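Hi everyone,

Forwarding the result from last night's run.
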Amino acid sequence: MAQSLDLISWNVRGLNSPARCNAVHELMLDTKCTLACFQETKLQSIDDGLARFLGGYKLDKFAFKPARGTRGGILLLWSSGDFDVQEVRIGRFSISAQITDIRSGVTFLLTGVYGPTRHHLKDSFLRHIRRLRPSPGEGWLILGDFNMIYRARDKNNSNLNLARMRRFRAVIDRCELHEIPLQNRKFTWSNERRKATLVKLDRCFCNEEWDLAFPHHVLHALPTGPSDHCPLVLSNPQGPHRPRTFKFENFWTRVPGFKDKVKDIWSQPSSHTEPMHRLNQKLQRTAVGLRDWTKGICSEAKLQFHMALNVIQRLDVAQEHRELSPPETRLRAALKRKVLRLASIERARKKQASRVTHIREGDANTKFFHLKVNARRRRNTIQRLKKDSGWAVTHGEKESTIHDHFASFMGRPGPRPNELNWETLDITLIDLATLGEPFTEEEVHRAIKEMPADKAPGPDGFTGAFFKVCWEIIKDDILLVFSSIYNLRCAHLNLLNSANIVLIPKKDGAESVSDYRPISLIHSIAKIFAKMLALRLRPHMHELISVNQSAFIKGRSIHDNYLFVRNMTRRYHRLRRAMLLFKLDITKAFDSVRWDYLLALLQRKGFPTRWIDWLGALLSSSTSQVLLNGSPGQRIKHGRGLRQGDPLSPLLFILAIDPLQRILSKATELGAISKLRGRTTRMQISMYADDAVIFINPTQNDVATFANILHRFGTATGLVTNLQKSQVAAIRCGNIDLEEVLQGVPAKRANFPLKYLGLPLALGRLRKTDLQPVFDKISGRVASWRGKNMAAAGRTTLVKSVLSAQPIYLLTALKVTKESLEQLDKQRRRFLWAGTGVSVIWDREYHDQRLEADAIAHVAWHLRGRRARG
């Protein structure tokens, strides 16, 4: 039976008044929870009548930790019809009990905590948590008001105790706990003042055993009510039954007879002669055939696995009483090899579902990949959505809210009120004739070979692995489709150009649809087509895009943008020159590009007519369905925008936004915007995709002209700048009336340090608290509980990937203290040595040839090498 519980945790800030007790009673009736933990009851004694009233007369059993005077106190309530509770233990800061779910028989340790507010007691509280850790193999859920944080982002100001944060993280790591993410709120407590301090004090942690037992549970916050803390509800959301869809499993390619089966299905005669109809029919028929074929294989594999284990056990028992014969010894060895092969199938399935790409399948066990699946599911589950009038809670309400949101800007836009004056932009034509040449088999095959094998599939259900392994079987039909596309016979391209949109939260506490990033999982054939166009276009991007834009162009780096903006900011500050820095927010950037504008732009840049027609066919035949917790919604016909997840979209987007810098430069050249003082005489702009920073002289005319240019550019292209969400930061403007200068421009006033491209941007030296979010991200990636389920090679690979990706980007651009680097190294060492079998030597001698084992260089040495190369 599926494990399910409904639990509420809340710091009620006292149950010593009838009004608060009534509020708790009503909340329990509304939530229908069967397990509750209340902190800060401020009660030294609780009788049976009060406990039953607080539990809404459904929760009939209780245990409590008395308050000390009017401080503290914890109350645990449960329904005896749902849970059997044993071994209640009262600690200095906690109450713990063994909870057994009567329906499923699953038992775990539940701990409710109330962390001390007094600073001198916080270290004692952390030691207390360490002592509560249960025996290995036992599930543990620990929740409550911890009254401390371990990440900088869990507080809305920089007043942080970094040493205590590190100690809290170390305890979480040592106890092998991970936090269950809070779905709809970023903070859980407020001091409720005008300039409020907001902190995430209330949390819910679990270990991997609990996570595996309750994989579908998610955490969300309710309104604070009479308290200043949010109630947290942990539950298993009941959505509609997901329709069963085909998803290709990459391990099928290893099963004997796989290619023969595909060949048999593919060679069956088709009822269609038109290439796109025929390929669509063959893909659908192959999906059905493979699903039926694998039913027997998977069920037989499980049967063989358990039968092999049973025989091995019998032989092991027999060996305790007699010597095994040579045939029995060989049989047991063969069965053990068979068990390993069958277990690897399950591990392969979980790896593909986890979407982990930076480690190999054999470098982690099945539990690791299973936990990654659970974490991704919790992070992406949408429990409720904010709409214009309240909240969408039911699946139907959420689906309608999402559909209305996307249909409103993905549909066909109205007429353009103005167009760009192309003649004034001095667009240089370049030779792009090769873009329109016929497609070759080698070109199609190259696009397929560059498709990731493990990425989530589109509506057709096939991954890149299928096309790579079965290329010789299926290539003729695919090549016929691309022959039709070359000849612009694209009437039925819509059959192969659908997409599923998944919503990924952009931030903690995502509430509205706009807080989610729509990623398109595109049909494999449309993806191959887009990849081919991108491979042709990519070599020309250096000539087509100005040097101010660094995104998606080989040889250009995101570091260049950050360092340019930082150096310009500090230069103006150092030279005492007044300046305004505008950080633009472009509304739904990828999703709002007008196609008529984009196609006209490509024509002006000299793109072949055939290539433009191919792009027009790819755009106009596209449709999408948004997946809400795995269930597809209504189909949306696209009328504008570029799909995020399409390999061609990034290149098209930077082409679409590039004229903005040309317009601003032209306005500066013509005197509509004044030139910046100093050695440079051109408009200072930095662009990384849609992240744009622009320096403007602090005059009313320049700001008004700049805002007008943004408005006219937005109406002509679809790339509308949301000035309300854009930021403006002043540099050396103390003697300037900014209210007058910024009149009519509703940009938010920002102070340094502000964030640009994920990094803090400051006028001077950064403080430790400014850098703490950087180290929080790194520490979260290398928590030691993850390493326990990984082989030595997997841990080594992950440490290297953590070192070489995001942290290198962050740390190469920033000056970091030796102490901070040592903290980072300490975290990585702890992760690396979390398991057994590690032969990697942690040594500063990066080039020491005497080391026989691999060497992972310290961060400081790695950064020195990167800076030397840069």
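The chain has a mean pLDDT of 85.

Cheers,
N.
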